[in-house]
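Good day; I would like, with your permission, to put a structural problem before you. What I wish to show you is a protein chain and, alongside it, a tokenised description of its three-dimensional fold. I would ask you to consider whether the tokens describe a fold that such a sequence might reasonably adopt. You will find the record immediately after this paragraph:
***
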Amino acid sequence: QVQLVESGGGLVQPGGSLRLSCQGSDVNLDNYNIGWYRQVPGKQREGVSGISGADGSVNYTEPVKGRFNISRDSAKNTVYLQMNNLKPEDKAAYYCGTDLYWVCEHINHDRRPPRYWGQGTQVTVSS
């Protein structure tokens, strides 16, 4: 069982920044590919970004390219999602997820979501 805990969401004005955290509990996140997803009520879950456990390579979906940055801090067993130049359409609940067989390319579709998820953290972008 992989336990993940997200934090860092909140209310921010358009153009602002937030940094989300995904911390592993009783699991070494360096051994996993980690994905960030987001979901708005009534809409399909959307992949945002992924980071490889093997080589640190990263993936982003088109809506966030150039604005979001994913990274990991092994000492803190945490994966971060730095979100810059936030837009109202970024408003969503953000979740990190993983499992042993999930790969970062899966953020580009919803046919293979991660098996394990955190509880989510809400991001609201509004003036």
Notes: Residues 111 and 119 are 21 Å apart (CA to CA). The chain has no helices and eleven strands.
